[in-house]
Amino acid sequence: MPMPDFAAPDPSALPLRLVTPEGLDGALADLPETARGWAVAQGFNAGAGAVLPLPDATGGLWGALVGLGDDKARARGRFVAGGAASKLPEGTYALDAATDPDLARETALGWLLESYRFDRYAKQAAPKARLVSPKGVDAERLRAIAAGEVLTRDLINTPASDMGPAELQAAAAALAERFGARMAVTTGEELLARNLPLIHAVGRAAAADRAPRLIDMRWGESGPTLTLVGKGVCFDTGGLNLKPGSSMGLMKKDMGGAATVLGLAQMIMALGLKLRLRVLIPAVENSVSADAFRPGDILASRKGLSVEVNNTDAEGRLVLADALAMGAEESPDLMISMATLTGAARVAVGPDLAPFYTDADADAAAISRGAAKAADPVWRMPFHAPYEAMIEPGIADLDNAPSGGMAGSITAALFLRRFAEPTRYAHFDIYGWNPKPAPARPKGGVGMGARALLEAMPDLLGLE
C-alpha cells in the first residue's frame, strides 16, 4: 500500500470536531442547524471512538463529530480520534483550529498509523478518509515516525518463509542505501573468524541459505554516538528444547527487536538527527538439526565470558551478547538493545507496555517523558543486583536460563548488562505484537518503545 500521508491543504475540507461528553453541549451549539438536529436525533453522546457524519442543509456531507469519551475512557485508550480514519466516509477532513495542540498531534499521528494495512499477501481496503495536517503540527516529523512504524510492522508481519536472516539483511541494506548509510555483514563461518561465537552457535543449525549473520550499519558523521542492537531471531523453534506448537505459532515475530531498531533508525535518519548512529543486528534462525547447540553446552563469547546453556530456547540473549560486546568496544555515548526476549515480561506487564532497564535515573526519566508525549507507554524495571547470583552457575561464568522461573525478565537483562558493561546502556524487553485491534494499532506486528526513544533523544544525547 502507499505510505500513509496527509491530504494536501484544502479550503473545502470537511470540518472534523473532537468532542468530550462534558463539552458536548457547546460543540452542538456551534454546529449548523441541520447538523445539530441530526446529532441530537442520533443521540450522539461523545463516547470514546464514536463517529457521527453530519449532513448539510442539502443532504450532503457537512463534516463529522468524533467522541473522545470521559476522563476514565481517555485514560484507558490511545489514538481514539485517530481511529476515526477507518470509520468515516470518504472525504478530506480538517481538525478544528481550536483543537488542543497535543491532541491534534496525537490525532494526526494516529490517523497515519490507522491507515496502515499489511497487504503483501491479500488485498486490504485502506481508509478513504484523509486528514489535512493540522496547523502547528510538525507534519514532516509525523510522516517520518509513521514511515518508521510501517517498516517495523511490515517486517514483523512477514512470515519466516519470506523473512529469514538474508531477507532481514536485504531490508537493512535497502534502508542503508536510501539514507546513504554504510553496511557490513559477517556471515556463517566468518562469524567464528571475527570472534562472534555465540551468534554462530545459535544459528549454525539452520539451512545454508539461512546462515547466521551480524548486520552492522553506520550513519552520520558528527555528534554523539548511539548504538542500537536488535534481536533478529527470524524464527525460533526453541532449538532442542523445542517449543510446543502453541508457543511456536507467533515466532515469526521473534525478530521484533531488529524490526524496531530498524524502524527507529529510519526515523532518526529521515529527520536528520545530529548524531552518529550504529545499528547491530544478529540475524539467525534457531533451528533443529544434527548441528544444533545443546542443553549443557558451555559456549565461548566475544567478551571472553563462558556461558552454560541450560535452555536452547533462551537463545536471544546469546546472540545479543556478542553484538553488545562488539558495540561496547567503541564506547558509544549510549547503547540500547531491543528484543522480544522473555515471556516473563509479558506476564509482568502484558502486551501493551514496553518494560525497559537502565541504571541511570536521568535516562529513565527522559524515556518516560518521551513515552508520555509520544503515546508509546513504557515501564521501568530494575537491574536488581541481588539477582546477579542467579545467572552464575559455577561451572561457567554465566547461565543463559536460571532454573526456577522467577524474575525471568530481570535475570535476562542482568545477563545482557554483563556484555554491555561499562557502556551507558538501556534494554527494552518488548512484545512486538498487538493481539487485539485497537485504534491506530491493528492486530499484528507493532513497534514498541521506538517513538518514546525518539522523543527522548534530545535529553538522552544532548541534541538541540
Automatic annotation (TrEMBL):
Record flagged with keyword Mitochondrion: no
A GO biological-process term: proteolysis
Keywords noted in UniProt: Aminopeptidase, Hydrolase, Manganese, Protease
One GO cellular component term: cytoplasm
Alphabetical list of Pfam families matching this protein: Peptidase_M17, Peptidase_M17_N_1
Annotated InterPro entries: Leucine_aapep/pepB, Macro_dom-like, Peptidase_M17_C, Peptidase_M17_N_1
Boundaries of every Cytosol aminopeptidase domain copy: 311-318
Entry's Gene Ontology molecular function annotations: manganese ion binding; metalloaminopeptidase activity
PANTHER family named in the record: LEUCINE AMINOPEPTIDASE-RELATED (PTHR11963), PEPTIDASE B (PTHR11963:SF20)
Record protein name field: Leucyl aminopeptidase
